[in-house]
What does this fold into?
Amino acid sequence: MDFFFLLQLLIVGTIVGTLYGVVAMSFVLIYKASHVVNFAQGEFLLIGAWVCWWFLTEFQLPFVFGFLFTLVFMMIFGMLLQVLVLRPMIGEPVISVIMVTIGLSLFFQALMKWIFGTTAEPFPPIFESRYVELFGIINIQSVYIMSIVVSGLIMLSFAWFFKYSRTGLAMRATAFDQQAAQSMGVSVKQVFAMAWAISAMVSAVAGVVMGVVNGVSHALAFIGIKVFPAVILGGLDSVVGAVIGGLIIGLLEAVSQFIDVELGLGMNLYQVAPFYALIIILMFKPYGLFGTRDIERI
It folds into this structure.
């Protein structure tokens, strides 16, 4: 048994799981504010990655500026999407809104393929050294180190945002009871727009990191589906659950890959293991580890 290989997979699995947790928080943010499950979340990653790649290659911008411009673009994109497409759906059945998000997913996938093609494109080099050596025996990609720092900052920001900021408190109040929140002066429309804007920005962060590691292609949108087991595992309405769910799924993928390689199965177990976890959690605890028990099944 190759313990160094296992250790390397566990470290990478933890980092990737942290990214999954960030994307899962995007799902939770929209659900907490509007009770909508956004099935176009994976396309948010894809759009963010393509936009950042376009800024870096077309305008030759330094990565920091390209990344910041991407976040601004995604904030405006998320806000406009909510105002133009989702806001007219307020008051409609939840299943109708979900079907709209599925339609958006298909539309954005086709749009990105039409604009950027179907070939994977590499990001320009960002760091002088592609790998960082840990403990003298393990090499980790530099972008993964950057991602875990950024992911940690995003998680701390979310915790502060929901607990202390006025907008965060307004989102919590809106999620609890929209009519009561509105009667207290909270603008539900602004809360919804803000939730979609933040969700789009946070998803773009994960999209850029994944794009730097693997190149940008339409396959990035699949991460939105892979993260869904993490969201259900942690609880659809729990920010803490999203983080823990993401870490569990990331580590589960690492262990599955190790078993696959060690036993020579060649079955790509790490690709399907999260969905086995999804089936098990839906069978025995459909509200997740930290979710509210009375959330509606959809």
Notes: The radius of gyration is 19 Å.
